[in-house]
Amino acid sequence: MGICFKNFSFQYDNLKNPTLKHINLGIGTGEKVLIAGPSGSGKSTLAHCLNGLIPHAYKGKMSGELLLDGEPLYGKSLEAISKKVGTILQDADGQFIALSVGEDVAFAFENDSMPVPHMHEKVEEILKNFSMEAFSEQSPQNLSGGQKQKVAMAGVMAMKTDILLFDEPLANLDPMSGQLAMDTIDALHKGTDKTIIVVEHRIEDVLSHHFDRVVLVSKGEIVFNGTPDEVLRSGVLEENGLREPLYIEVLKNCEIDLKEESTLTDISTLTKYKDKVMQVLGDLKPTQEKDEHEVLLECKNLQFAYDKERGNILKDISFNVYKGEFLAILGNNGAGKSTLLKALTGFCKLDQGEVRYEGQDITKWSIRKRADVIGYVMQNPNHMITKYMIYDEVAFGLRNFGYAEEEVKVRVTEALEKCGLAPYKKWPVASLSYGQKKRVTIASILALKPKVIVLDEPTAGQDHKNYTEFMNFLMTLKEEGITVIMITHDIQLALEYADRAIVLSSGQILADDTIYHVLSQKEVMETANLKDTSISTLARLYGVEDESTFLKQVIQKGREH
After folding, report:
1. Burial grade of 160 (CB within 10 A; 0-12, 13-18, 19 or more)
2. What contacts 184, CB < 8 A, 6 or more positions away?
3. Mean pLDDT of 439-462
4. How far is Cα 151 from Cα 172, in angstroms, rounded to an integer?
5. What per-residue string of b and e applies to 2-35 under the rule 16 or more CB within 10 Å gives b?
6. Radius of gyration over alpha carbons of the chain, in Å?
7. Span 317-334, mean pLDDT?
8. 3-class state of residue 35 by DSSP
9. Considering only 186-190, 194-198, 222-226, 440-444, which range has the smallest mean pLDDT?
10. Between vectors from CA 548 to CA 544 and to CA 553, what angle results, nearest 5°?
């Protein structure tokens, strides 16, 4: 039985063209399926059709059939659908219904009239699976983005639904937490007969976990439906703006033909290509130490606590930021990364320490004054967006600062073009995907032309094609002398673009070095919940002694392609 789409199409009321076109797809009971696709492809719309948000929350025209266990899904109430399909939303804030983490996870148990002592045991057990038991009494709204995602997942895990739908489950999680989340999904699938559907574009992070099938959506249509090994052999991912696993890229960049390989999802089967890879890379020349230039920002002995009971989030942090560099801030969920950026931009008032810009103490500057030199893009775009139309949102800051409308038009147009949003300038923001909304918020900051751009998870929710275009744009800003500071959980992204990385854990700096040296320090990686890239895995399989240099050579080889 399961799920069945028959010649199904859907068009939002505010759009001229269908978002989904002639979908024919069956998902059997107990299957584990990955639905992937570039940003704006329609994959999230497909998910919304399954969980009832379409048509209950998002209105539009539908044709064809959508059946669940042989019965039409439409016509059922949202409550009835939610008893069949449990959903972990990409935007965790939209999912919380209780005042504390424990109460939120307990909601399903309360509905089942579970005895209170048993309920407490079950809630603690589920929270332990996500290393969140210490936060049981806290409000979900006080958590970091990644911690919120864990709580949302824990809440749905408690529901007795036949189908579990995960919409971009890795978007806000640090790498090891993402690994844990996927392990939990694996265990749930193996231990039950539940149908698991994961909507995600981070291919490498999910394909290392067993999936029965991969369904690839592009421009509202299904362009591939097959096994994970088939999708890696086909080259269809790259053709549709998605990134292949890094180790696949490395082998292809070394001119190795993988079309005849039977098992590509298991990296350990590819050790036979060691000699060819090492030959192409040539002599490994040791990486240089970090290259320091003119100091732009100085952070000295920064300390901050939201309240005394929770203790310091930032603990005596000191570091410099250099003019024109690309700095990545890495670390586990709750390490203090977002708080650090808020301290730089003035959103958090420091308890101790100072921030200097070009030698001038700006610690007591207002948020408004700091915005002239430091632009801040928040992790969740919905926390920044205030206007209905995209053009007005990007123009909002300029208008607030009193720019003439002619200048506003020039700057907004330029920012929209640079962020790949020019075709959407007359669209309502609500029509965009999460990843597209992220680009709107980035465009609104770029329009102000700051000297330093601070970005919290700038590529979360964006496919490889879009984030590559955007990151290449950021690199042009870097070449113009603009400094970019970026929090990211995407180790691949940091490896490709960052000059330097600062690693935080428990509010303290663990490492401050070139990205290659940081990622080759096993102890730092483990402490900060950072997951090795498959390039590091390949290096160890090949017995490479100087992992840092191997990383650098592989990335440089990739840039040549």
Report:
1. exposed
2. 129, 130, 153, 157
3. 86
4. 12
5. bbbbeebbbbbeeeeebbbbebebebeeebbbbb
6. 24
7. 91
8. strand
9. 186-190
10. 80
Closest CA to 316 of 327, 330, 301: 301
As a whole number of angstroms, the distance between CA 59 and CA 36 comes to 23
CATH value at residue 529 = 3.40.50.300
End-to-end distance of the chain based on CA atoms, in angstroms?
A: 46
Residues whose CB is less than 8 angstroms from the CB of residue 114 and which lie 6 or more positions away in sequence, other chains included: 122
Same structural domain, 331 and 459? yes
- DSSP state, residue 269: G
Cis check for the bond before 428: say yes or no (omega within 30 of 0). Answer: no
HSE-up of 541 (CA within 13 Å, CB side)? 20
Angle (nearest 5°) at CA 34 between 30 and 38: 160
Q: Do residues 119 and 77 share a domain?
A: yes
Report d(CA 91, CA 419) in Å as an integer: 22
Token pair for residue 226? 């097959």
Do 270 and 339 lie in one domain? The reply is no
- Give per-residue pLDDT as tens, 69-83: 899 988 888 888 888
Whether 524 and 518 have beta carbons less than 8 Å apart is answered as yes
Identify whether residues 422 and 559 lie together within a single domain: no
Look at residue 326 and tell me if it is in a domain: yes
Least reliable range by pLDDT among 176-185, 228-237, 302-311, 391-400? 176-185
Q: Is residue 28 one of the residues assigned to a domain?
A: yes
Q: Which residues pair with 4 in a beta bridge?
A: 26, 67
**Does 239 map to a domain?**
no
How far, in Å, CA of 43 to CA of 260, rounded?
30
Question: Residue 329: beta bridge partners?
Answer: 487, 502
Whether the CB-CB separation of 226 and 214 falls below 8 Å is answered with yes
d(CA 261, CA 252): 13
pLDDT, one tens digit per residue, over 489-513 is: 888 889 989 989 999 999 999 999 9
- Find tokens 């039977």 and name the residue: 262
Let me know the angle formed at the C-alpha of 165 by 174 and 433, rounded to the nearest 5 degrees.
70
The predicted structure's pLDDT at residue 461: 64
**Interior CA angle at 11 toward 9 and 14, to 5°?**
180
333-337, 345-349, 381-385, 431-435: least confident range: 431-435
Say whether pLDDT at 92 is over 60. Answer: yes
**DSSP letter assigned to residue 267:** G
**Residue 503 token pair:** 């690693």
The widest CA-to-CA distance across the chain, in whole angstroms, is: 69
Claim to verify: residue 299 and residue 277 sit in the same structural domain: no
* Spatial separation of the C-alpha atoms in residues 200 and 206, rounded to whole Å: 8
Based on the structure, what is the number of domains in the chain?
3
Q: Is 64 exposed, middle or buried (CB count within 10 Å of its CB: 0-12, 13-18, 19+)? A: middle
Highest mean pLDDT (candidates 6-20, 280-294, 369-383): 6-20
In terms of domains, do 495 and 545 share one?
no
Claim to verify: residue 51 and residue 148 sit in the same structural domain: yes
Report how far residue 105's alpha carbon sits from residue 153's, in angstroms, rounded to the nearest whole number. 9
Residues 388 and 443 in one domain: yes
User: Which structural domain, as residue segments, surrounds residue 142?
Assistant: 3-229
CA 125, CA 136: separation in Å to the nearest integer?
11
